[in-house]
Specification:
The chain has about 180 residues and is α/β, with parallel strands linked by helices. It has five helices and eight strands. Helix 1 packs parallel to helix 5 and helix 3 runs parallel beside helix 4.
């Protein structure tokens, strides 16, 4: 199989005590951990994406802070690749596309955070680059947003972005469905 699991920005600042805690992040990370363990068992490619903030005024994922570290639940092991990025799109100004092409990978399983930002940007970019994408919807997290003085709950933000990605950008299914489809 020419598959790769892409874990996007599952970093400490998104977890309790971090600078930008996301709604339900621990349950999401537990699902991502299940996927990660499954990919490790099958010796399938795994790439961790780590956002390091480089823009002025950034308040989280700051260089050389614990908040920028990948959370222990899904921390890289062995020869798993870590790609550092500075933008929501994991392909922008990184070696991600080249790494995937060098490994002859054409199918991506994407999970992580935030649903409305880096998961969306990365999935759309991957699709535009010709990759077949699957998004593990229960392995992605976001937060409440506001627009024109209206609060949009994280569950609504997440559902809206998963719905938008589901055609044509990706197959959007649960971690269990992904694992079952690989059996």
């Amino acid at each position: 199989m020419n598959d790769c699991l892409i874990l996007v920005d599952l970093q400490n600042d998104y977890f309790p005590g971090g600078m930008m805690e996301l709604v339900g992040i621990q349950a999401v990370a537990a699902n991502a951990q299940i996927l990660l363990n499954e990919f490790r068992k099958s010796k399938t490619s795994i790439i961790h994406i780590q956002h390091i903030s480089s823009r002025p005024g950034a308040t989280f994922f700051l260089p050389e802070t614990d908040g920028a570290n990948i959370n222990q639940m899904v921390a890289p092991q062995g020869n798993e690749i870590v790609v550092v990025k500075h933008y929501p799109n994991s392909f922008r100004e990184t070696a991600l596309s080249e790494i995937l092409k060098n490994q002859n990978i054409n199918n991506l399983v994407i999970c992580g955070a935030m649903s409305h930002m880096c998961i969306d940007a990365t999935t759309r970019a991957a699709f535009d680059l010709g990759f077949n994408c699957v998004v593990a919807e229960d392995s992605c997290a976001t937060k409440d947003l506001s627009f024109k003085n209206k609060i949009i709950k994280a569950s609504e933000v997440h559902a809206s972005f998963m719905a938008a990605l589901s055609a044509p950008y990706a197959q959007v299914i649960s971690a269990k469905e992904i694992i079952d489809s690989r059996a």
